[in-house]
Amino acid sequence: MFCPNCGEKLESLYQKFCSSCGSEIQSTLIPEAPITPQPIAVKPQVPSPASSVPVYDSKTIKAGRIGPQSRLGFSFALVAIAFFIAGLIFGGTLILRILMPVYIYPYLPGGPGLWIIAFILHIIGFVFGIISRVTSSKAGKDEPDNGLQKVGSVFGVFGIILNLIPLVLIPIMIAVANRPYYDPFM
């Protein structure tokens, strides 16, 4: 197609102005090409990989005050530690009897009675430590998230460990204390 003003060849059928003279090309001179609508490509929605990953239920945080199980767990933990201290006082005489020189040995209290008391106190403290952990675990599931439950849980673990160590050591110390004493100077 050519420009009606200057006769220059047009570059495109849909050109509105002549590139040579700048005159307006009338639309009547340009044959209308049938415009067909372009199909719109619709992409199927594919689920993202993140939606196919299983999502775990998170723990809901409950708002509220400290519950009774948190108080019980903390109390049982303190009792477990108290039994450890009491058992240490009774069992401490056993340690002193082993470490002290022979001339002080007869004046220290001790013997099988105190050793058995110390052992029983540590067993009771160990049981209270386990009860504290169980109660604190229930409090963590059923009650609002609070510091007393967490402290009770940690103290419960301390109560278990502190009472378990003497339960292993006391029989060993009893065996050492009851061995025949050899005095090389006699």
Question: What would you note in describing this structure?
Answer:
The protein is mostly helical and about 190 residues long. It folds into two domains: about 1-30; about 70-175. The chain has four helices and no strands. It has helices at about 50, 70-100, 110-140, 145-175. The longest helix has about 30 residues, at about 70-100. The protein is rod-shaped.
Q: Can you count the beta strands?
A: 0
Q: Helix amount, in percent? A: 40-55%
Largest sheet: none
- The helix/strand order is HHHH
**Cα-atom radius of gyration:** 45 Å
The end-to-end distance, rounded to whole angstroms, is 136 Å
What is the tally of helical segments? 4
List the helices and strands and how they pair.
Elements: H1 49-52, H2 68-99, H3 112-142, H4 147-177
Helix pairs in contact: 2-3, 2-4, 3-4
